[in-house]
Structures
1.
Amino acid sequence: MPARLTSVPAGTEIFIDANVFVYHFTGVSSQCSEFLERCERSELIGITGVHIILEVLHRLMLVEAVAAGKVIPGNLVKKLRAKPDVVCSLSSYQQQTEAVLDMGVEVLPLEHSLVKKSWRFRKQHGLLVNDSVTGAMAEGLGSLATADQNFVRVPDLTIYSPRDI
């Protein structure tokens, strides 16, 4: 069972998964918001990867399109591909994601060696590609903030999860 996101010890270096940012920006989890505020105050050392930023951009774009009434839920990617004018009209997802940098969260690049290392996470723990890259990046820190329960299969990671979603 993952530890509570609210119990991350001060000073911890922790990798942050996309869902923590998405739950914060969409107002779904006050625990995710409080956690990111702790990163912003430098109480925690928040680290993420460029692949996470791309995932956050993608998910928040979809959320914005639905919230603005531009598309209805179901096959959102297909619907947005067919409506480039709608994609052009969206902007808050970009502003929200850029705010991650203002939170004091370090964004790590995606190195080729890390892609190679992620193979082990797919083979040993059955993680999908993006999650395996996250696991490989988080492994060096030992701590991961995520709502994704698939990471409990990785024994060398301490998982911290929000309990209010």
2.
Amino acid sequence: MGEVYFVRHGQASFGAVNYDKLSDLGHRQAEWLGAHLAATVGRFDHVISGDLMRHRQTLAGIRKNLHHQECIEDKRLNEMSYFVMEQAWREETGAQLPGNALALERHFTAVMQAWERGEIANAPESYADFQSRILQSVRDISAEGQKVLIVSSGGPVGILMRHVLGLDLAATTELILGTYNASVTRFMVRGDSLRLMQFNGIAHLELPDRLHALTFL
């Protein structure tokens, strides 16, 4: 059998002018993950990431402890353009940006539902196209008998979970919102299909002196 280790990037810079870069904690999360993978897996047959800065920085942190000569970038693994869509949706609907965490989660779900229904006129891509590019990229890189490490984002994790488990959009958004930074979701490759082995693994962050590093944004 083959295995796909699908990693969400480390903590990014939520609230900053440029979200697409790791915080200091995000860099540490990535380095801790690399040490964990070096101790538990050792080496991967292929390493691939999206080409966003937070993907590249996460992979660079992992590689400080997990040495791998060749890495590939595939922009099909990039995250959805959520902030662009969210702004377009607010302009179209007149909705206001909420000021607390629970309301923000409901807001995220509403934007995702509108996107899937094709109701955001200026969305950079359709939900169907987003889903298709994620799934095709993983199909292209995964193979029986090989271990593959992929570094991407929470949205793509949700897409894979939806595909493998047959989830609806509401359940998918719950999973996206609950995916830890620098977490690992593992799939078994059997022929042309994937089977879930582990979701949201954070063994490298569960030590007493690292519990502060359990983050979602």
3.
Amino acid sequence: MKKTSTFLIAILVIVATICSCNSNNLNTQDTVDKTDAKSHDMKLDEIIKANNQLYAGLNEMFKGNIEPLNKLWSHSDEITYMGPFGGCLQGWNEIGEDFKKVADMKLGGKISCEDMHAFVGGDIGYISCVEVGENIDPDGNPVSVSHRATNIFHLENGEWKLVHHHTDISYQLEKAYDKEIK
């Protein structure tokens, strides 16, 4: 009987130890999950802030100021831009040159990001939205704009940089600027 009692006590001690370890492990995992969630939320806020800077930068470009976009875009050779007139520009030299041409025209107008959906994972994130606003045609008339867009950001040296911008082709702008879409 004494052996059985000693055996049962040993089993109870082992079970209590295992339960205690699992309980501590669950608390540790819960803390890790909360830390990961907080980090994720911070990154999501940062992506949204970078996206807001994009639209502020585009509106500045319409006034002739290219600097906000210069600061936001990555300057690598791998970045891409697929804008409302079609085609695909690749690399900062090509994209920056195109933006400078647009800025020099001082077209005016304003565009905003609506119906935004954001995702972030690790060092990359994206925003999908509808770009809504108006641009000004060569004759000074407003042209309504509404098209889908996707903006992809990459974390570079602690800053979220735009690496890809893609919009639907804008037939309204094509007609207003008498451009053939590529």
